[in-house]
Amino acid sequence: MNYNIISYIIYIPLIFFITIKVGLLFYKHGEYFLTTIFESNINLVKNVNNLLLMGYYLVNLGYSIIIISYWEKINNTIELINVMSTTIGQIIILLALLHYNNIFWLKHLTKTNILKQ
User: Fold this and answer.
1) Residue 95 · residue 19 · CB < 8 Å
2) Per-residue pLDDT for 110 more than 80?
3) 71 lies in some domain
4) pLDDT confidence bin for 114, thresholds 50/70/90
5) Structurally, how many domains does the chain consist of?
6) Alpha-carbon distance 1 to 11, whole Å?
7) Which of 44, 65, 73, 81 is 20 to 30 A away from residue 106, measured at CA?
8) Phi, psi values for residue 29, rounded to 5°
């Protein structure tokens, strides 16, 4: 039995679901945050929000697929669970770091009046 194929069948839909669901939540709730930063400039808010969403999808889905190539051969069910939980955990931590990085830079650039010009 090839456990790698089973892990791909489980991993790919699961990580796509997590990434897309979190991206839509960021997109929906981030619009209010961006509106406060850009002082109600709705056109700019929508454009920045769309740009952040597309960048988020490209980085996270690309990373999620590329990381599969680094998996070693999985020989049993325990290794399958270990590899899946480790990889999904790393990706969720990456999602959080990217999110907080975006918030930090948007706030920093707004405080220094670079984005308000």
Assistant:
1) yes
2) no
3) yes
4) low
5) 1
6) 17
7) 65
8) -85, -20
- Residue 116 covered by a domain: no
DSSP state of 74: P
Residue 22: what residue type?
V
Structural domain includes residue 117: no
Residue 45 resides in a domain: yes
- List pLDDT tens digits, range 10-69: 999 999 998 899 899 989 988 888 888 777 788 988 998 999 899 989 988 998 899 888
Phi-psi region for residue 2, left (φ > 0), alpha (ψ -120 to 50) or beta?
beta
- State the residue range of the domain holding 16: 3-111
- Phi/psi at 54 (5° precision): -65, -40
